[in-house]
Amino acid sequence: MKKPFVPRPYGSSGSTFQGRNRPQEKARAHKINEEIRVPQVRVVDEDGKMLGIMTTFAALDLANAEEKDLVEIAPQAEPPVCKIIEYGKFLYEVQKREKEQKKQQHQQLLKEVRFKWRTDTHDFDFKTRHAKEFLDDGHKVKATVAFKGREIVHQEIGLALLERFVIALADHSKIDQPIHPEGRSLSVTLAPEKAKKKPV
User: Fold this and answer.
1) Count of CB atoms within 10 A of residue 73's CB?
2) How much of the chain, in percent, has pLDDT values that exceed 90?
3) Which of 38-42, 54-58, 155-159 is the least confident region?
4) CA dihedral sign of residues 169, 93, 57, 65
5) pTM
6) Which long-range contacts (CB under 8 A, 24 or more apart) does 12-21 make?
7) Which whole number is the average pLDDT over 104-132?
8) Measured between alpha carbons, how far is 125 from 36 in angstroms, rounded to an integer?
9) Separation CA 170–CA 83 (nearest Å)
10) Is 174 a residue whose pLDDT tops 60?
11) Is 167 in a helix, a strand, or coil?
12) What is the pLDDT of residue 23?
């Protein structure tokens, strides 16, 4: 019989976050561990590698086995995207990015990538890589799926494509404007989550 999952206390395994024993100064921006109530999640590891869709119980079990936390990083996705990482380290990375972004003081531009409602995998991956570069350079990215003529009746295909786009960039961005119709197109706007890349 499988041993039942027991959530690991926050802050173990060297984490600087003290969890329940620390006075909560403000509400957390991310749900972690047993706070994640949805039945399924899409999981990525600490390096951003996609581990696939699994039950939340299985994801928690995997995080516990690695002595790390399960952190919800994209609650708007379907299913939500969660990352296996020590929550203290995750907080440190977020805070470091925010400080570096404040130091940038560079002009933020709105970059646009456009998809056809029937976009093949190569074109999708190519444009998504460019969008990631824009986000890492500190710019917002607007992704648009345009429909011509009777293509407008296939909006569900465009919606699925933009949801896939959001998921692919979940670890590099946050949603600035959710998916919405604009005339004969669907659009979503992402804002950078990480600091601008520095030359090596």
Assistant:
1) 19
2) 46
3) 155-159
4) positive
5) 0.45
6) 12/67, 13/67, 13/68, 13/86, 14/86, 14/88, 15/69, 15/86, 15/87, 15/88, 15/89, 16/88, 16/91, 16/92, 17/87, 17/88, 17/91, 19/87
7) 84
8) 30
9) 10
10) yes
11) helix
12) 36
Query: Which tokens hold the place of 160?
Result: 């699925």
Q: Which domains does the chain have, with CATH numbers?
A: 27-99 (3.10.20.80), 106-192 (3.30.110.10)
Alpha helices by DSSP H, listed for 139-179, are 155-168
Q: Smallest Cα–Cα separation from 68: which of 47, 42, 50? A: 47
The span from the CA of 174 to the CA of 77, in Å, is 11
Measured distance between the N- and C-terminal CA atoms of the chain, rounded to whole angstroms: 51
In this structure, what token pair is assigned to residue 194? 């990480």
Tell me the two tokens of residue 54. 């699994």
